[in-house]
C-alpha cells in the first residue's frame, strides 16, 4: 500500500497530492471503522473502494 501511494505521488500533480492528503487524513481519523478494500486505476480514473463508500479521482 505504501509503495503504491509513493508511486502515485511521483506521477500526479498538486491537485492529486491534496486529494491524497485529505483521503489519508480521513482514513487516519476513522482507522478503526474504514479501511481501503480496493484501489482500481483505469485510464485517468483512480477508484478507491471502502466498505461503505467509494472515492473517485480523475486527472
Please give the count of helices.
2
Total strand segments = 3
Give the overall form. Answer: globular
Main beta sheet: strand number and arrangement?
3 strands, antiparallel
Low-confidence stretches: 29-34
**SSE order, one letter for each helix or strand:** HHEEE
Distance N to C terminus: 20 Å
Hey, roughly how much beta strand do the residues contain?
Answer: 25-35%
What strand order characterises the main sheet? 1-2-3
The averaged pLDDT comes out at 62
Question: Radius of gyration, rounded?
Answer: 11 Å
Structural class: alpha+beta
Q: Helical content, roughly?
A: 40-55%
Structural domain count: 1
Structure description:
The protein is an alpha+beta fold. It has one domain. 41% of the residues lie in helices and 25% in strands. It contains two helices and three strands; from the N terminus they run H-H-E-E-E. It has a three-stranded antiparallel β-sheet, with helices on one face. The longest helix has 16 residues. It is globular, with a radius of gyration of 11 Å. About 10% of the residues have low confidence.
